Amino acid sequence: MAERMTYEEIERAFPGEWVVVRDFVHDDATIIKDGVVVAHTPDRTAAHRAIDTFDDAFAIWFVGGPRPGFCGILNLHR
Fold it and tell me: What are the backbone angles phi and psi of residue 10, rounded to the nearest 5°?
C-alpha cells in the first residue's frame, strides 16, 4: 500500500533505489517536502515504466545522489 512519507523518511528508507512519489507537497522552489510513495526500486527502467501510466503530477529521483545518465523529473503540469 502506498504510504505518505516526508522527504527525509524516503531518503532513509530507500537508499540506492529510484523512488516515485505522487500527491506530493513542495515549496516555492519545487523542493519535495512529502508525498505518497507509489513505487521504489533499484531498477531505473522499472521506475520509469511505473510513471508511464500517470496522467497527473509525479516526482521521481534516485536516493543516494546523481548517477551517470541521471535525469530528475518533476512533472507539475501534464
Answer: -60, -45
